[in-house]
């Protein structure tokens, strides 16, 4: 049966709107790198849209701010090792996450998003729509493009030293501390340093 | 939109009473609908006006047929898998209606709507076989050929009408 | 085969053009001809012809079918014309003609009576559209009742007036209660 609906002028313009690229902004402050990567990859590929189809180019732009404050779970800064191998002699390098983060504060966000996009040919094009900024500053043309903001993937917790003394006094006591207990945010504890074995016969200083 | 009329009291009021909680970011909230009776009446009334016959509104419904949910409207064709115990030309009423909606409202069942209030009528227009899916394997020099021919039967329904009666209060 | 095909012979071109319409349609949307079933349903089958041989072994099933079942089927479907056509020394076949002008033929050679009956009923319930791979299991007259989705459909309107990024749109929302909140709500004594 051929029932052809005539596309009106409104339909045509509505279609331009449907397939227009949106610019989202998300704050990476204290956000887990993997969770953030999953969420951003979803928006870069356009999977959040009801019109999503794998053969349709419907991905959006995502702007990530505060990449220097991205977080990792537990000791993952040390134990997450990114492996680079160009398959040339001596080109293999296994670098822990904290070293990469020291070198370039945006690189961890890039790597986690790139991994979350999946191992396919499309991700090289999708990752070009990711815009990473180490702090909250961004170029003016990017700020003008941004039309929507994404919610963070985790709650941003208040650090212990950010509470005022009044607030801390008002907080209900759950634990009774021993006398002379020093809390680390009140007074920093000296690093005892590495234990050195005393050499016999040498004078102690 | 109807949903905008519902007033929701969250815990922000409660939080304001204690000075402690204002400092922390509260993420949980317990929603609570107030003035239920008046709002329910308003909603019933506006939906009943929308579905009235003189309005001639186009309705859509979500029905559960043959293990799958279908969003259907007047004149839709749906392709059900399998040879169902129906003859061509049979008229059936789809009773498991999960949702009905119009241009200005959406009405959800929990999980089903009353089948007397909302009726989705359909007619069986075709029973046919599906396009065969072939899997052909030919191994050179091994005298080996497999032809796996998969074809199933299908039943095509035409949705004649989606209608709803005015909601009783 | 001549190197330059003759185009002044109309018959091969016409024959090829007929095949083109059918042969290259690999996938299509779900269709039913003639708005069938929108107001009322009419059977799309117009004529059905059973060709068989009175003597040969290969049309035993068809002969039995004609003897036992065909009269009953004809009585139930008065809108369909059924022909039983004996053709000497031929392979038996069932040929159905539909309202949209298409013809379907099934070779019934060496079929049993049950198989013939099954195919006969299949031809009765077909609409005449060719069997193709479906692009979608549903087709609709109206694209959307409540309007099609656009990127701004579910965008919070509060974002229009704020300059982004703003803190209130960034906060993570969860129904879970954190430990701090729990202690503040249920204070220990």
From TrEMBL, chain A:
GO terms for molecular function: mRNA binding; structural constituent of ribosome. Pfam families: Ribosomal_L13. The keyword Ribosomal protein applies. GO terms for cellular component: mitochondrial large ribosomal subunit. Keywords: Ribonucleoprotein, Ribosomal protein. GO terms for biological process: negative regulation of translation; translation. Gene3D superfamilies: Ribosomal protein L13 (3.90.1180.10). The keyword Oxidoreductase does not apply. Belongs to the universal ribosomal protein uL13 family. HAMAP family: Ribosomal_uL13. This is Uncharacterized protein.
Automatic annotation (TrEMBL), chain B:
GO terms for molecular function: structural constituent of ribosome. It comes from the Eukaryota. One of its GO terms (cellular component) is mitochondrial large ribosomal subunit. Belongs to the bacterial ribosomal protein bL21 family. It holds the Pfam family Ribosomal_L21p. This is Large ribosomal subunit protein bL21m. PANTHER family: 50S RIBOSOMAL PROTEIN L21, LARGE RIBOSOMAL SUBUNIT PROTEIN BL21M. InterPro entries: bL21-like, bL21-like_sf. It comes from Caenorhabditis remanei.
From TrEMBL, chain C:
GO terms for cellular component: mitochondrial large ribosomal subunit. SMART domains: L51_S25_CI-B8. One of its GO terms (molecular function) is structural constituent of ribosome. It holds the Pfam family L51_S25_CI-B8. InterPro entries: Ribosomal_mL43, Ribosomal_mL43/mS25/NADH_DH, Thioredoxin-like_sf. Residues 168-189 are annotated as: Disordered. Residues 54-127 form the Ribosomal protein/NADH dehydrogenase domain. Residues 175-189 have a biased composition (Polar residues). Keywords: Mitochondrion, Ribonucleoprotein, Ribosomal protein. It comes from Caenorhabditis remanei (Caenorhabditis vulgaris). PANTHER family: 39S RIBOSOMAL PROTEIN L43, LARGE RIBOSOMAL SUBUNIT PROTEIN ML43. It is found in: Mitochondrion. The keyword Ribonucleoprotein applies. Gene3D superfamilies: Glutaredoxin (3.40.30.10). One of its GO terms (biological process) is mitochondrial translation. Its main location: mitochondrion. The keyword Ribosomal protein applies. This is Large ribosomal subunit protein mL43. Belongs to the mitochondrion-specific ribosomal protein mL43 family.
């Amino acid at each position: 049966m051929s029932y052809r609906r005539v596309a009106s002028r409104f339909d045509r313009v509505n279609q331009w709107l449907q397939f227009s690229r949106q610019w989202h902004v998300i704050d990476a402050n204290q956000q887990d790198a993997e969770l953030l990567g999953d969420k951003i990859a979803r928006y870069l590929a356009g999977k959040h849209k009801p019109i999503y189809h794998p053969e349709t180019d419907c991905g959006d732009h995502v702007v990530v701010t505060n990449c220097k404050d991205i977080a990792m779970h537990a000791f993952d800064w040390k134990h997450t090792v990114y492996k680079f191998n160009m398959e040339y002699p001596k080109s293999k390098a296994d670098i822990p996450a904290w070293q990469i983060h020291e070198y370039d504060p945006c690189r961890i966000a890039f790597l986690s998003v790139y991994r979350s996009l999946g191992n396919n040919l499309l991700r090289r094009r999708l990752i070009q729509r990711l815009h990473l900024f180490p702090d909250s500053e961004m170029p003016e043309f990017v700020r003008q493009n941004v039309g929507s903001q994404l919610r963070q993937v985790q709650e941003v917790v208040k650090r212990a030293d950010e509470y005022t003394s009044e607030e801390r006094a008002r907080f209900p006591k759950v634990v009774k501390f021993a006398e002379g207990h020093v809390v680390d945010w009140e007074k920093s504890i000296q690093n005892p340093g590495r234990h050195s074995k005393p050499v016999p016969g040498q004078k102690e200083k | 939109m109807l949903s905008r009329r519902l007033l929701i009291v969250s815990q922000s009021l409660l939080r304001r009473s204690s000075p402690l909680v204002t400092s922390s970011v509260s993420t949980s909230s317990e929603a609570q609908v107030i003035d239920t009776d008046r709002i329910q009446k308003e909603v019933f009334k506006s939906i009943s006006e929308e579905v009235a016959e003189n309005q001639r509104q186009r309705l859509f419904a979500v029905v559960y047929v043959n293990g799958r949910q279908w969003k259907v409207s007047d004149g839709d064709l749906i392709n059900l898998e399998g040879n169902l115990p129906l003859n061509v030309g049979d008229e059936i009423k789809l009773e498991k209606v999960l949702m009905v909606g119009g241009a200005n409202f959406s009405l959800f069942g929990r999980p089903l709507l009353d089948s007397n209030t909302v009726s989705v009528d359909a007619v069986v227009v075709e029973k046919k076989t599906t396009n065969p899916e072939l899997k052909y394997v030919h191994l050179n020099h091994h005298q080996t050929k497999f032809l796996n021919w998969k074809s199933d039967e299908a039943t095509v329904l035409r949705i004649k009408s989606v209608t709803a009666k005015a909601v009783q209060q | 085969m001549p190197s330059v095909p003759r185009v002044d012979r109309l018959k091969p071109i016409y024959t090829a053009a007929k095949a083109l319409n059918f042969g290259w349609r690999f996938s299509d949307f779900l269709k039913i001809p003639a708005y069938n079933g929108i107001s009322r349903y009419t059977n799309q089958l117009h004529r059905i012809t059973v060709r068989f041989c009175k003597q040969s072994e290969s049309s035993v099933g068809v002969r039995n079918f004609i003897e036992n079942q065909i009269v009953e089927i004809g009585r139930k479907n008065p809108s369909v014309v059924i022909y039983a056509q004996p053709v000497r020394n031929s392979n038996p076949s069932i040929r159905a003609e539909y309202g949209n002008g298409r013809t379907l033929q099934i070779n019934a050679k060496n079929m049993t009576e049950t198989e013939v009956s099954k195919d006969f009923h299949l031809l009765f319930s077909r609409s005449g559209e060719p069997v193709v791979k479906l692009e979608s299991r549903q087709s609709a007259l109206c694209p959307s009742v409540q309007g099609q989705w656009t990127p701004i459909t579910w965008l919070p309107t509060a974002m229009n007036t704020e300059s982004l990024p703003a803190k209130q749109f960034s906060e993570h929302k969860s129904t879970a209660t954190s430990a701090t909140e729990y202690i503040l709500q249920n204070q220990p004594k």
